[in-house]
Write a structure and sequence with these properties.
heterodimer; A: 347 residues; globular; B: mainly alpha; MetI-like fold; two-stranded antiparallel ribbon
């Protein structure tokens, strides 16, 4: 008990320092995005150039304030972000925050499914590969993991769609819910943005099933990509812990092989796994953008590619900045979790 | 990357210090050849399969002119137009696209585009990354700290999103063949530079405190010479491994850019990602050939490079290299992955009982 306050404050200091490190990271990211997007000229010319006369363009540009010095705009953009103002989209004239609120849930939902699929597939198979190292199961699983990495997520999505939706007709081709289900949700007043939650709110099993069949292929597509990463991660780290003396000691005490793998070798391997798995959030987001585009899953990624097509760079800037911040914050949380699990990390 | 690429690449030479090359015919000491000889079993199978895939990819890319039956933007022969969305036939083995192009020709020409992008992207990121890492790590100070912070921030940035932003800046999104290749390659470069920077800088920081560097300094060797002769040569050993893994990532990023509409115009060059984007609607109506073939091309190319990269990675760990004389052991040591899994190295270090 006496040691508790010291340990607590050490952890507290670590978390604080790590938290403060987010600030320069996010500042660099926001600045990078701002500079890159402005390097192409002002967003209004990019979006509407050629469709309006030069006079009209100039009028819109000065109304939006894009003719002022770049530093003034930069300052305004920074202070805007701090107050939650990411600007207004040009193509459909909506606040970027509204776009984020509307579509963020869909992306979160898809990512959650994908992580679930990845955990269910990646962790047990990674354990098997580590335990049966250099034997046939390991060889097969490693090649599959490389295949999962080398397959672009949109190609995997297209193949699954072709086989299971178009040829076999088991799953819908695109979207998150059919029109009937959407109407049922609206009548039930459920609009959390998370389709599964809303489907349960209607209380109709048919709607829940409808949502699940829509989600299956996109979740599998993004999940397979992530599962390959998890498998490799679990395998590498488990091989390390399986070779340690305490595993040998446990084996000599007669602990069963299954328990050696799932308890003795697994726990210590967990910390590097958590850390690296958390760092895959960037990969997951990129994968989500491509998966959503493939399946017309109306989330942030789908919206992003729509805005890219429309050359609406205010919206692009807003979505990209938010994704970058999500990555930075997730990495922070992962570090904190790792510190909680493993006291050695706190220095 | 391929066998000739590695042999000729700028970062490759230091990977094979002469004293480790062993005896035998000169060709046995060539980088990749040596590793093939050193590997056994599954390891060798993966490495050879990867090398074969890479060789096919490079031959296709270089020989596209002779292999492809038509041009990448050809719509007609003197006999008439190809027609849109025609299923595979004797004239068009892989069918035709919605735009009326021959799928086989676009797949073959696409290899050329991909190879160009990979070469430009990898070369550019090596040059920039190594230079920054060397100077930053060697001199240290506040500039070093800022560079590390920026590199970490960029490293954490979702890579494809960064590449999209850069593609917008460099080319405004769409462009000619060389413009598009350069835009895509440079977009990918910026994503990769932090990786090379981090690896080289870490090595430089480690090596500059070694006794031989101090000795050189005491002798009055100029900084420039210490940096190039003493530090750089010893810091770039792991680069060929990152190169092979990056090459496959470059192919995937290029395809991702194309898929989101930031690739190269179909009339300027063939690009697999763009073709897949056009195939999304086809798939819904059951047309499989426009998506399958370009997609498979991406998978095979990326897979070949990943297989080579992973195998080289496994074989390259200096702790394992000594053991390579004992073939039986060398074959089973396959756990580490220097470039991809940070935890891998330590797990190998803590895992000395290979022969159990």
């Amino acid at each position: 008990m006496a040691a508790a306050p010291t340990a607590g404050s050490a952890l507290g200091r670590y978390v604080l320092v790590r938290f403060l490190l987010i600030i320069p990271t996010v500042l660099i990211l926001v600045t990078t995005v701002f500079v890159l997007m402005r390097a192409t000229g002002d967003p209004i010319t990019a979006a509407l150039g050629g469709r309006l006369t030069p006079d009209q363009l100039a009028e819109r540009i000065s109304a939006a304030g894009y003719d002022r010095p770049i530093l003034v705009q930069y300052w305004e953009y920074l202070t805007g972000i701090l107050t939650g103002d990411f600007g207004t989209t040009i193509s459909d004239n909506r606040p970027v925050t509204e776009v984020l609120a509307t579509y963020g849930a869909a992306t979160l939902e898809l990512s959650a499914y994908a992580v679930l699929v990845a955990l269910v597939l990646g962790v047990p198979f990674g354990m098997i590969a580590a335990y049966r190292r250099d034997l046939l199961p390991d060889a097969v699983l490693r090649v599959l993991a490389i295949l999962a990495y080398a397959t672009p997520v949109f190609f995997a999505g297209l193949l699954l769609k072709l086989i299971f939706s178009v040829w076999l007709g088991w799953f819908p081709v695109a979207g998150r819910v059919s029109t009937g289900g959407e109407i049922a949700m609206r009548q039930a007043g459920a609009d959390s943005g998370f389709m599964l939650v809303d489907a349960f709110a209607t209380g109709d099993p048919a709607v829940v099933l409808d949502v699940l069949t829509h989600a299956f292929l996109p979740a599998l597509t993004l999940g397979l990509l992530t599962a390959g990463v998890f498998l490799r991660l679990v395998r590498t780290n488990m091989i390390g812990t399986l070779g340690t003396e305490y595993v040998d000691a446990a084996r000599s005490r007669g602990v069963r092989e299954r328990r050696l793998v799932t308890a003795h070798a697994w726990r210590p391997a967990l910390i590097p796994i958590i850390t690296v798995a958390g760092m895959q959030i960037a990969m997951l987001l990129v994968g989500a953008v491509l998966t959503e585009t493939t399946f017309e899953w109306r989330g942030l990624g789908f919206q992003l590619s729509e805005y890219l097509q429309a050359r609406d760079f205010v919206a692009v800037q807003g979505i990209v900045v938010v994704m970058a911040v999500v990555v930075a914050v997730t990495n922070f949380l992962v570090d904190v979790i790792a510190a909680l699990v493993d006291p050695r990390v706190r220095f | 990357m391929t066998a000739p690429e590695i042999a000729g690449g700028p970062g490759a030479a230091p990977a094979t210090p002469e004293h480790l090359g062993g005896r035998g015919a000169w060709w046995r000491r060539l980088p990749v050849v040596r590793q093939v000889r050193q590997s056994v079993g599954l390891q060798r199978g993966m490495l050879v399969a990867g090398l074969v895939l890479c060789a096919v990819f490079v031959v296709t890319a270089v020989g596209a002119r002779w292999i492809a039956p038509y041009g990448w933007s050809q719509l007609r022969t003197p006999d008439g137009t190809f027609g849109a969305q025609q299923p595979p036939s004797a004239e068009h083995w892989f069918g035709t696209t919605v735009g009326g192009y021959d799928v086989l020709s676009r797949v073959v020409w696409g290899a050329q585009t991909a190879l160009l992008v990979v070469i430009v992207a990898v070369l550019a990121s090596i040059v920039v990354g190594v230079l920054l890492g060397l100077v930053s790590g060697y001199f240290g100070g506040w500039a070093d700290r800022i560079l590390v912070l920026v590199a970490d921030a960029v490293y954490a940035f979702p890579s494809l999103l960064l590449a999209i932003l850069l593609a917008i800046v460099i080319s405004g999104g769409q462009s000619s063949m060389w413009g598009g290749v350069l835009a895509a390659a440079l977009s990918i470069t910026v994503v990769f530079v932090p990786q090379y920077f981090r690896v080289v800088r870490a090595e430089v920081v480690r090596i500059k405190s070694e006794a031989f560097v101090d000795a050189a300094r005491v002798l009055g060797t100029p900084h420039r010479r210490i940096m190039t002769r003493h530090v750089l040569r010893n810091s770039v050993r792991t680069l060929p491994l990152i190169v092979t893994l990056n090459a496959s990532e470059a192919i995937l990023t290029l395809a991702g850019l194309g898929f989101l509409g930031f690739g190269i115009e179909p009339t300027a060059a063939a690009e697999w990602g763009y073709d897949l984007q056009r195939a999304v609607a086809d798939v819904t109506s059951g047309i499989w050939w426009t998506a399958l073939f370009p997609g498979l091309a991406i998978v095979l190319a990326a897979m070949g490079m990943t297989l080579v990269g992973e195998s080289l990675n496994d074989l390259a760990d200096p702790r394992l290299r000594v053991r390579a004389r004992n073939r039986k052991v060398a074959g089973s040591v396959a756990a580490t992955s220097v470039a991809t899994a940070p935890a891998g190295e330590s797990s190998a270090a803590a895992d000395p009982k290979e022969d159990s």
